[in-house]
Amino acid sequence: MDLTILIFLSSGLFLGWSLGANDAANIFGTAVGSRMVRFGTAALICSVFVVLGATISGAGAAHTLGELGSVNALAGSFMAALAAALTVFMMTKMGLPVSTSQAIVGAIIGWNLFSGHATDLHALTKILGTWVGAPILGAIFGALLYLLTKRVLSLTKLHLLRLDSYTRWGLILAGAFGAYALGANNIANVMGVFVPSSPFTSFSVGDLFSMSSVQQLFLLGAVAIAVGVFTYSRRVMMTVGDGIMALNPVAAWVVVVAQSLVLFLFASVGLKAFLEGHGLPSLPLVPVSSSQAVVGAVIGIGLLQGGRAIRWSLLGRISTGWVATPVMAAGICFISLFFLQNVFDQKVYETAEYQLSPLLFDRIADEGVDPARVADLRGETFDSEMAVMKALAQKTDMSYQQRFEIARLAKVQPPGGAGERISGAGSAMAAGADRLAANASAVRAAAH
Amino acid sequence: MNARSALRIFSGTKTLENQLDEFLDLLSESSILYRAGLTYYLDNGGSDNEAFRQKLKQVDQMESRADQLRRSIELSLYEQSLIPDLRADMLSMLEDLDFLINVFEENLYAYSVENPAFPKTLHPLMKQLTEQVALSVESLVMAARSFLRDVSAVRDHLHKVMLYEHEADELALALKTQIFASDLKLEQKIHLRHFVDKVEGVSNEAEDVADWLAIYTIKRAA
To answer: Any idea where the domains of chain A sit in the sequence?
Structure first.
């Protein structure tokens, strides 16, 4: 593999390491902090299941992140991941709770702004909705599970020592599930931006096992997460858990299960297909913050107990972090891309030409716009999606999303040329994720 | 962790559960023997009273066994890092309960050595006092068992501890009033008052432990 590619991938690995160091603490923090599970056991289980989750089920959430913005040059991916990692690092240093998901979304928007790519508001709204939905869902799961667990415990009248023993096993099993869900949901944050420019090639071992280039990329990211778990998460684990509210081991177990369910719901392609197949409402597959799911679950339990034990002041700080993280990541990414492009002379995005084809003029007319108003745009060439959108905004009163749809389709496709990689109608990242999903299905089918 | 080590964990838990049960059995039994021993003492005096000596010996052996069990349980709790959130409470409870067995043993030895001479007129009240004290400790043992298995039932037993302690207080007051209203010599009055206080002191200790247990229970139920 080209050394340059490895250097560029290093920022993703750094981001993976940060995620391993911080988010593993959300899964096993209370268990290790309260000495219910040994750190070595927690780190091993966490690492193995993060890798499995990322390589088997990592595709779903990567798809939606790809819709938000397809970072189409390796140097751009490098900087997006680095900006997210730096934001996570700085926010952690400032003692503010941080979400890797929010950091990478902010960084992608920063790249979109710099490269003139339009941000899909539909995808962004979907992602922002989950940032609100994930903690609320976490709170609901946390409260319901806690009620159910307390009811079962009051009926079974387990001996204190037996309950302790079962809780340990419960924490290990829930932690394994949580790590799997974390890998499946959050690998998109770590390696998603590299999917369009993945340096790996697919391989298979007979009919038994095959691994796509995206899976190999995700495996590498998952290993970085595992290294983060082993090298740095211990300290975080020992301090996490009683931040918002002191938890007993049973409540800690409930929090881990609730958080894992939230992550899994937002990551499982199979579950989404099952729900949709049965006419049930499904959730979008989006990388959500494990920290926010944990916060939601703890608050759910806290509210059930009357809310007296909750440290509300800390929640204010968490909310600050939720707003500051994407903004900071977008800012860092935008400024760093400027330096990378102009000082280090790196290509941070693929340039393309955009023109409004006759078909697109028909579509604009379909939107109720008088063709005469956009007539002088015929034959005009634009250098970015944003330029197309700006021109349409000046001539028409089309909504942002309408102009976005037109701009996305306006890219001039070179006939069979290198520019094919920059797909106009859909992102290469989303396509890569689709390949991964298909591959994962094949792996599961082979396993069965 | 393989299946065999998993089974070992569960069997270790079972052993510890049994040790805790045995420890509580010892406290319960020692309270019954204490009551029986004092009844024999009051009926037949301390010297050459084989039945009383037998009870004293039994309580002494139970105290030694309870100490062994307590140490073993405490060691296991720490070595295996069990019940981390309630370990400190559990250790305090074990120490307090063990202290009650020590008090039973110490009281019986004090009777054996100092041989207090209770007038026959005081015997019924003294026996009632001993009974109330024993009942307060037995209720405390029930509360401790519930703390381990059925936390919702702890309160039912704790309120009985308070009731028996109150009864014991009143009986002790009545006894001391009768002692100091009698024609006994002052040194004998003081000697008997000392023994009434010793017996009554056990229920006071039981009440103190019950107060702590009520707090541990709130933590456990949260």
So the answer is: 3-347, 354-415
Query: What confidence score (pLDDT) does residue B9 get?
Result: 53
- The pair of structure tokens assigned to B104 is 């039973």
Residues 114-173 of A with CB under 8 A from B: 154, 157-162, 164-165, 169
- Reported ipTM exceeds the 0.85 cut: no
Give the minimum alpha-carbon distance from A185 to chain B in angstroms, rounded to a whole number.
Answer: 27
What values do phi and psi take at A246, rounded to 5? Answer: -70, 135
Question: What is the per-residue pLDDT across A291-328, written as a single tens digit (0 to 9) for each?
Answer: 788 888 888 888 887 777 677 777 777 777 778 889 99
Cα A321 from Cα A91, distance rounded (Å): 8
**Helices and strands per DSSP (H, E), number in chain A:** 16, 4
- Do B105 and B59 form a contact (C-beta atoms < 8 A)? yes
- Beta bridge mates, A382: A354
Residue found by looking up tokens 């397809």 in the block: A70
Q: What is the CATH number of the domain that holds B15?
A: 1.20.58.220
pLDDT at A252: 86
Tell me: the pLDDT tens digits for B160-216?
A: 999 999 999 999 999 999 999 999 999 999 999 999 999 999 999 999 999 999 999
Query: CB under 8 Å to B180, separation ≥6 — which residues?
Result: B189, B193
Domain residue limits at B156 = 3-221
Mean pLDDT, chain A, rounded, equals: 79
Q: How many CB pairs under 8 A join A and B?
A: 43
Is residue A390 within 8 A of residue A403, CB to CB? The reply is: no
How many structural domains compose chain B?
A: 1
Pairwise CB contact (< 8 Å): B85 & A154: no
Q: How confident is the model at residue A231 (pLDDT cuts 50, 70, 90)?
A: confident
The dihedral formed by the CA atoms of A403, A409, A414 and A420, expressed in degrees to the nearest 10: 110
Q: Are A212 and A17 in contact (CB under 8 A)?
A: no
3-state secondary structure of A382: strand
Q: How confident is the model over B35-52, as pLDDT tens digits?
A: 999 999 998 876 778 889
Total length of chain B: 222
Position A366: which residue type? D
Residues of B in contact with A238 (CB under 8 A): none
Beta bridge partners of A205: A209
Report the candidate in A260, A290, A287, A257 with the shortest Cα–Cα distance to residue A59.
Answer: A287
Q: Is residue A64 within 8 Å of A108, Cβ to Cβ? A: no
